[in-house]
C-alpha cells in the first residue's frame, strides 16, 4: 500500500516549485491533498500534473488563497475539513524573498518590507500552526516547515529580512515542536539550498530563462554547490515526504534537515587553498 494512503495533507505554496513537487509526491503516494496559492492558473497546472500521475480528482482540493490573510488561512483549513473530513499533514512551504518598493533586499530595505517578509515567512506559519493544531492533535499529525540555508549561521547580506525571518522560523519550529509533541504532533524543518524554482523570479525579477541559466551556472561552480548541480524541487520534496511520514521518521522531533548539495559546508577561503602561497 502506498505510504500516504488514508492521509490528508495541506501543502501551502503548491502552485509552483517545491510545494508543487511535494503535493505531487504525497498525492502519488496515496494522500488526499489540499493544494493552494494565490495564482489560480498555476494552481490548475499543479492539479493537472497530479491528475496526470493517475491520482483521482476527488483526492485533490485546490484552494486559491493568500496565506498571509486570516480569511485565506481559514478557507484552506475549512475546505480541507469539508472535503476530506480530517487533517494529518501540514506542509508550511509558501514563502518568498520579495524586494521592497525600490527593489532593495539588503539591510537598507524598507521597514514595510521587513514586516511583509516576517508576515509571509514566519507569521503565516505561526497562524496556520495554531489553526491546524486541534485537527492535527486528533490524528497525531505532522508539520514540516520549509526554511532555508539562508537562516544561517552564514550571513546573507543580499536577503537580510527574508533570511532573518527564516532564522526566526527555525527557532519557532524548535519551540513549538516541544509544545506540540505532547499532543502527538511532530514538527520538523527542511532547509533547502539553491533549488531551481520560481524563487529567483520573485526575488530578483529574473525571467524564467534567466532564472534557469542562473541556477545552472551555480551548479557548475563547486565552491557554490559541491554536488555539481543545482537542486530540483523533487530533491526537496523527498526530504519533506520523509519527515511527513511517521513510519520513516517517527523519532525525529523539532529537527532541521539541510538539503543543499553541500553548499552550506563551503567557506570562501576554501577556493584559495589550491592556489600557490603568496611570495613575500
Ligand atoms: P516558488 O516561487 O517557485 O514558489 C513559492 C510558492 O509560495 C508559490 O506556490 C507561491 O504561490 C507561494 N506563495 C508566495 N506568497 C504567497 C502568499 N502570500 N500566499 C499564498 N501563497 C504564496 O519558490 P520555491 O518553491 O522555491 O519556494 C518554496 C519554499 O522554499 C519557500 O518557503 C522558500 O523560501 C523556500 N526556499 C527556496 C529556495 C530556492 O532556492 N528555491 C532556497 C531555500 C528555501 P502564488 O504565487 O500562487 O501565491
UniProtKB/TrEMBL annotation:
The keyword Transmembrane does not apply. Coiled coil: none annotated. GO terms for molecular function: oxidoreductase activity. Pfam families: adh_short_C2. The keyword Oxidoreductase applies. Keywords: Oxidoreductase. This is Uncharacterized protein.
Amino acid at each position: 500500500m502506498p505510504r500516504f494512503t488514508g492521509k490528508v495533507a495541506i501543502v501551502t505554496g503548491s502552485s509552483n516549485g517545491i510545494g508543487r513537487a511535494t503535493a505531487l509526491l504525497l498525492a502519488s503516494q496515496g494522500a488526499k491533498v489540499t493544494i493552494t496559492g494565490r495564482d489560480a492558473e498555476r494552481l490548475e497546472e499543479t492539479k493537472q500534473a497530479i491528475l496526470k500521475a493517475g491520482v483521482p480528482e476527488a483526492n485533490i482540493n485546490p484552494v486559491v488563497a493568500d496565506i498571509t490573510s486570516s480569511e485565506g488561512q481559514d478557507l484552506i483549513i475549512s475546505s480541507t475539513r469539508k472535503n476530506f473530513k480530517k487533517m494529518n499533514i501540514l506542509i508550511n512551504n509558501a514563502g518568498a524573498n520579495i524586494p521592497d518598493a525600490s527593489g532593495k533586499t539588503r539591510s537598507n530595505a524598507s521597514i514595510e518590507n521587513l514586516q511583509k517578509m516576517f508576515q509571509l515567512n514566519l507569521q503565516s506559519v505561526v497562524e496556520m500552526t495554531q489553526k491546524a493544531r486541534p485537527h492535527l492533535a486528533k490524528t497525531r499529525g505532522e508539520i514540516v516547515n520549509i526554511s532555508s540555508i539562508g537562516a544561517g549561521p552564514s550571513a546573507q547580506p543580499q536577503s537580510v529580512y527574508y533570511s532573518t525571518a527564516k532564522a526566526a522560523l527555525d527557532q519557532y519550529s524548535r519551540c513549538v515542536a516541544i509544545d506540540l509533541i505532547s499532543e502527538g504532533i511532530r514538527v520538523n524543518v527542511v532547509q533547502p539550498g539553491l533549488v531551481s524554482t520560481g524563487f529567483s523570479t520573485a526575488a530578483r525579477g529574473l525571467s524564467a530563462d534567466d532564472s534557469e541559466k542562473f541556477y545552472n551556472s551555480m551548479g557548475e561552480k563547486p565552491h557554490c554547490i559541491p554536488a555539481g548541480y543545482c537542486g530540483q524541487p523533487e530533491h526537496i520534496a523527498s526530504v519533506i515526504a520523509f519527515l511527513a511520514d511517521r513510519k520513516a521518521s517517527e523519532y525525529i522531533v523539532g529537527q532541521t534537515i539541510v538539503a543543499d548539495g553541500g553548499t552550506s559546508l563551503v567557506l570562501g577561503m576554501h577556493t584559495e587553498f589550491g592556489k600557490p602561497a603568496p611570495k613575500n
